[in-house]
Amino acid sequence: MKVKTIASIVGARPQFIKAAPVSSALASSFNEVLIHTGQHYDYGMSDIFFEEMKMRPPDFNLGAGGGSHGEQTGRMLIEMEKALASVKPDCVLVYGDTNSTLAGALAAAKAQIPLAHVEAGLRSHNRAMPEEINRVLTDHISTFLFCPTDAAIENLAKEGITKGVHRVGDVMYDALLHNLATARKRSKILKTLGVEKYGYSLATVHRAANTDDPAHMTSILKAFDLLASPVIFPVHPRTRKAIRETGLTVGKNVRMIDPIGPLDILVLQENAGCILTDSGGMQKEAYLLGVRCITLREETEWVETVEAGWNRLCGVDEEAIITAFGSWFPSGDRPLFYGDGTASEQIHRVLKELV
Q: Catalytic: 206?
């Protein structure tokens, strides 16, 4: 009997983390071809993730990073169609909500290849976000929809999507459980930076709605500088470019560092007194690690973290950020919204049965 082939498409650093446990689970039943779109392409945003997650190098690197959203997605789609025509997979697997996700989904749909979407059903209900458009379109052309939460299933049902929907839990939880022990042993980042547990805050900013708006970045950086603890700020290339080109001032309380690998960032998250971010994945990881999170957006896909009291939506309002940092400290339980850490194996079982 011929072994079925799955083409897994990744392009951004969160997708590398999500793909690692899923690829491991798929290996016992499928031939997996890994296609890297090149959306994140420098060492700190790409190669180091493959090394530290012990993932094999991609079978294809499409080199389609850079440019506007439309430009980037178009280049990816052109190259993706060529790759899929060469591989002839039995299923295409995409992750999350990036341009790589949408390009992979469109290429699969046009080639009439079954499409599986990991992290299906998430909604911010903000159509101004490119990521929201990507995830909605991908869900509506997917064959298999792997949902991390009950809320995700409800979102799909409201849009009339009930077929092929599976509640598997969150693959990021799988990855966190797998990587945390390794990170604690191998990472020296606290010593390198000269910081101690709870003695700093961790910040990340990468969404275009913030980085491309000088007023937003000005407010965020002012708030960071006025917090009552030093802020460690690994800077996304887009963010660094925006700060440089607009001549924004970064205060002495803010320590900008280059992007770091997944093990180092995990240790920084676990030991932070507070996390400030516009990243969806980092909100969720903060919750799983029991670290309070201030989200630099007006909405979130991970509504459970807010409802449970561990995440505050402050947008880019300087006063709101400072006030939340100084006066809000969550307490109480953290319900297991995101499954039991076996999402990858559940995805494998569904695909093994149905592909």
A: yes
Q: Are residues 85 and 213 in the same domain?
A: no
Q: 273 and 158: one domain? A: no
Q: What is the DSSP string of 149-218?
A: SHHHHHHHHHTT--TTEEE---HHHHHHHHHHHHHHHH--HHHHHT--TTSSEEEE---HHHHT-HHHHH
Angle, helix 214-225 to helix 318-327, in steps of 10 degrees: 30
333: in domain = no
User: 53 — phi, psi (to 5°)?
Assistant: -85, 0
CATH number at residue 191: 3.40.50.2000
Count: domains in the chain: 2
The pLDDT tens digits for 15-60 are 988 999 999 999 999 999 999 998 755 545 557 766 777 778 899 9
Q: Residues 10, 13, 14, 18: is their CA dihedral positive or negative?
A: positive
Options 40, 206, 216, 348, the catalytic residue: 206
Structural domain of residue 25, as residue ranges?
Answer: 5-170+339-354
If asked whether residues 236 and 123 sit together in one domain, one would say no
pTM here is 0.89
Does residue 334 form part of some domain?
A: no
Our measurement of the distance from residue 220's CA atom to the centroid of its chain's CA atoms, rounded to an integer in Å, reads: 21
Tell me, what's the pLDDT at 43? 46
Residues of the chain with pLDDT under 50: 43
Rg of the chain (C-alpha set): 20
